[in-house]
Amino acid sequence: MGNAATLRNVPSAGARHSLETYLLVNNVEGLEEGIYIFLPIEHKLAKIKTGSFAAKNITAACLDQSFIRSSAVTFIWTAVIYRMKWRYGERGYRYINLDVGHVCQNLYLSAQSIDCGVCAIGAFFDDELNAVLGIDGEDEFVI
User: Fold this and answer.
1) Which terminal residue of the chain, N or C, has fewer Cβ atoms less than 10 Å from its own Cβ?
2) For position 80, what pLDDT does the model report?
3) Is 24 in contact with 120 (CB distance < 8 Å)?
4) Sequence-distant (≥ 6) Cβ neighbours of residue 88 within 8 angstroms
5) Region 102-127: what's the mean pLDDT?
C-alpha cells in the first residue's frame, strides 16, 4: 500500500490523521468480547485481545466507571505523535486535541443517527490504559 491515502470523514491538521481507534467490545453480535483496533485503509477491525478480562482492566484504568463494563462498545482514541510532530513540532500536541474533538463529535452524530447513546469520558489513568492497550505511552498514547 505504498500510495494508500488516509483521507477520512473527519478533519485533521495537515491531513496527518495521527489518531488510532481502539474498541472495547462487550456486547456486539458477531464479535468476541475484547479489544480491537480499527484499520481505516482496509476499513476493518483487527483483534488485539479477546476475553472479558479486557473490560475489567479498561474499567479499572478508567477510575472504575461501571458503564464502561456494561456498554456495547467503548471507543478509545490514541495518538501516534510522530505523525504530527514531524510537520508541526511541539505544536502538534495542540492539533491532536482538536482532532480528537472532531472524531468524538462524529461519534456523537453517528450514534444519534441510529438512536444510540454516547457518553464521552476523559477520566482515566494514562499509564494503566496505555498498558492495557499494549502501547508505550510515548510514541503512542491514549488521548
Assistant:
1) N
2) 95
3) no
4) 13, 14, 95
5) 95
CA distance 54 to 32: 11
* CA–CA gap between residue 46 and residue 120 (Å, rounded): 23
Q: Which three cell numbers stand for residue 61?
A: 484504568
The cell numbers describing 101, all together, are 474533538
How many CB atoms within 10 Å of residue 87?
14
The arithmetic mean of pLDDT across residues 27-47, rounded, is 94
Q: Is the pLDDT of residue 142 over 90?
A: yes
Where do we find the cell 477510575?
A: 63
Distances (CA, A) of 11 to 14, 30, 41, 123, 130: 9, 31, 16, 25, 25
* Nearest Cα to Cα of residue 61 among 115, 5, 134: 134
